[in-house]
Amino acid sequence: MTLVNARAAFETAISTAVTTADATVSVVFDNMPFTTPGKTKKYVLVSINFDQSTIQAHGPAQSYYAGTVQCGVFTPRNKGSVDSVAIAESVIDGLTSVNKPGHASLFFRRIVNQSLPVTLIINNWHYWLNV
To answer: pLDDT tens digit string along 51-70?
Structure first.
């Protein structure tokens, strides 16, 4: 599987999980144009970065991809954290869905480490940011 296909699999999994849970949430990836929406909109910014590695233990070398998926969940400020936590959970559901047997791709992917959402409140921003 190429990096393009691996990226597309993650993009599809995250987008599907988030929009299925809440159709009012926009999902934007780092490889597409984006304009910050209005103050009342909820959205997720996703950055996917890959590295290609090769490991050779005993036997032939095996190539694999390693990388990081960073997601920023933006929700309107002064509305509480319920929406941001729900959106973060749907992002996690999308990421872990690629680990399930029978996933559409023949490429083996495994989500190894996940960080829990951390809420940042930045002065003069109109959003909560969970990353």
So the answer is: 766 666 676 666 667 778 88
Q: Which pLDDT score, from 0 to 100, does residue 39 have?
A: 79
The sheet with strand 62-76 has its strands ordered as: 25-29, 42-55, 62-76, 127-130, 119-120
- pTM attached to this predicted model: 0.75
Beta pairing partners, 109: none
Helices (H), 22-118: 82-97
- At residue 77's C-alpha, the angle toward residues 90 and 87, to 5°, is 0
Query: Which pair of structure tokens corresponds to residue 122?
Result: 């930045």
Taking only Cα atoms into account, the Rg of the chain, rounded to an integer number of angstroms, comes to: 16
Three-state SS for 65? strand
E strands, 1-131, in order? 25-29, 42-55, 62-76, 119-120, 127-130
pLDDT recorded at residue 24: 94
What one-character DSSP code corresponds to residue 43? E
What are residue 47's DSSP bridge partners? Answer: 70
